[in-house]
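ingest -> validate -> predict -> emit
validate: passed (alphabet ok, no gaps, 639 aa)
predict: started
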Amino acid sequence: MNLPPGFLDELRTRTSLSQVVGRKVTWDPRKSNPGKGDLWAPCPFHQEKSPSFHVDDRKGFYYCFGCHAKGDAVSFVKETENLDFMGAVELLAREVGMKMPERDPVAAQKADHRSELVKVMDEAVKWFRLQLKTSAAAEARAYLARRGLSEAAQDRWEIGYAPDQRQTLFAALTQKGIAPQLIVDAGLCAKPDDGGPPYDRFRGRIIFPIRDGRGRAISLGGRAMDPNARAKYLNGPETDLFDKGRNLFNHGPAREAAGKGQPLIVAEGYMDVIALVEAGFKSAVAPLGTAVTEDQLRLMWRIHDEPIIALDGDKAGIAAALRVVDLALPLLEAGRGLRFAVLPTGLDPDDLIKAQGAGAMQKVIDAAQPMVNLLWQRETEGRNFDSPERKAALDKTLRTALTRIADPSIRSHYGEEIKRLRLDLFGTRARPTWQPQQRGKFQPPQSALSSTKGSLLATASGRIDEILREAVILATLITHPALIARFESALERMELTGDDHNAIRTILLSHLDPATVEDRLRRAAPAVLDALMQRPHVLIAPPVRNRTDTSLASLCLAEELAKLDAGRGARREIEDGIEDFTGLVDEGLTWRLSQANEARHRADQPPRNDTAQMGEDRAAMSNHLQSLINSRVWEKKKH
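emit:
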């Protein structure tokens, strides 16, 4: 539906964001100032105790300084109620008494059709539930009893039964006046190829209703009673209501439980979820007959920042977990990850709870591993790394995996953890110690001298350059605040040095009126602002000197951000190289780099009047150093 111009502005004007958000949070009385529309609370989108979620009621925007969630009343309702854009607009419009504009005829027809399908699904769920009470369902009831599901639990989950007959559901629904085509469109029946009457898709199966986040029945899952059935579990087909790759079993109740602090547990199937919830693990979901999809993963992260994947401990379960790892790597963000709970071999959550109780399941959840551990396990378990070639192959594989992580900060931390795990695996090897030179032969020392790490290679001015670029970027955004929105994503991802730069970024990302940004900084952190803007390299930066040329500032920002990112990448490579050099370089190289480093530091000192000393004469010092290198002074001369 196309909304008329001004409709959303009027809706936002009439809507009180604090009232909308206030239904989901508890305001912090110490930080909040309701009279000024300045409200703070723990974020409803991620688990935290501190109030980092800020609502500016006058401007109608919210922002979380922890998970960076941001938006207005419409986006807040979308995220918390699992609605699409128009659904959120309609909900808010009803609350403030605004009449929705006339809908596009085609869109209206599709929406009406979906509403009819929901009604058909509701009738089918009721009918299947009634069939579970009949004598024909005795075996199904016995099976559910063996699985530990009481009648009360069966009612809670609305479990039903599909008789093993070809057209019983079709006949029951058509007798209620439901059009045959609607029954087919809902995925309950299928048309045969020979053009005969539709037949029931679910026959001789225990039925589990699948509901969306709003609680609407959108499809069915069926567990076969015949052990020889072609498919043990069967889901309804893709329909206008149901996209199995975009939904989760038990989505709505799990989201509510996660909002109350429970961890989100991702199990394999319906019975696992039911067993978990009945045992007290209320926030449990399952994919719908497929491997976890990217859409499902994003849906999980909307429920909880760190879902726990609880899969069977057998080979199939581990393989499924590793597929999730590959899927998740490019999508990781700060504060958003996965953990993996590996169950005992041969047991699923339902089996474990029945055999050992909820306490055993809790122990498995408490021992959930971070995703990096599974990545490492996949590449190392059962393999022998007894040669440099094999170790190099491992390094190459892991580097390839890490390059798939888009977030630079997470990629860096993964690299650090992989290095730690690598050290644990390979340990430290004993290396030949330094021996006196014999007959002019050079023998490698035990390790590089400690001064090597302070050499030209290790203490290059890369970090200083990064700090200077950070300062220019921040100062440019302060000088040209209209560019903040354009470079917001890059600003969020920047790895900043020091609390001062982070404090400035926090205010820049607070969705302030661009005209008030510098004033807000002046009031919140005057000393920090002055220190930044008075730096010589900031004062001479073209976009800072020219406050009127926004195009120039935009180009400069893009260039500085690109150079900063490239420079940091190069520095990390050098740092990795330094680590790899440790214990492998020779004493001569160590000495030469240390001498060069000392020379560089002496050269950086301001010259004194006494130029007689060669150490203060840069040209002479440089020539002398080169002569030492040319003469290979580290080699013992033959007499």
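Residues 550-581 form the longest helix (32 residues).
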